[in-house]
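Blinded run. Sample ID left blank on purpose so nobody reads anything into the name before looking at the predicted structure. Input follows.
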Amino acid sequence: MEEIRDAFGGAFLLLIQRDTALLEIVFLSLRVSLTALFFASLIGLPLGSFLGSGRFPGRNILVVLLNSMLGLPPVVVGLTVYLVLSRSGPLGGLDWLFTSHAMIIAQFILVTPFVASITRQTVEDLMEEYEEQLTSLGVGKIGCLFTLLHEGRYRLLTALLAGFGRAISEVGAVMIVGGNIAHLTRVMTTAIAMETSKGDLTMALSLGIILIFLALSLNVAAQLLAKVGRA
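Blinded prediction complete.
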């Protein structure tokens, strides 16, 4: 019990002192996850909008595939990216394995289905609610889509928050493709796993506190956006 109490005390001390090693890990985690989210948004938002507003042969199959990708096992994604970026893989010449680029790719693959799926559902729901009204006003297909995206902007922001939460909490894939290398690919989740295995609860707890704070902040932000969207 005393050991745990001392670990918590040391963890809060690291946070108060803004320990350099701690901040380095946190900032790298944020950089990797936000970059992955940015590229996931570039693909996920248009893809989700297209599937939510369009009616074409094979759409249902694409929706099923997209929803299935929500359950992609992170370790399988990590293994796939590892094989692709390894020296014997098709992209081995890039020399990206065990770098932040590899971690961004892995998180991008995991986050994109989240963003695309929530965007699709949002646009589809809004289409059912407003399509007839917009069509009667003579609004074209493109104009209708932009109107719906504007109407559902708070829900879409919630989708981005969910995607960021998925990225920042990921450990399996980034451990495989990043290697948890100090000062290069060590992020919060992999550092917590390593420090816990080493018995260094102080650093593990301080990083865990930051992760919990981020999770709570994302949840509060999502709730506020939902209230604003309903207002």
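Unblinding after everyone has recorded impressions. The first helix runs from residue 2 to 17.
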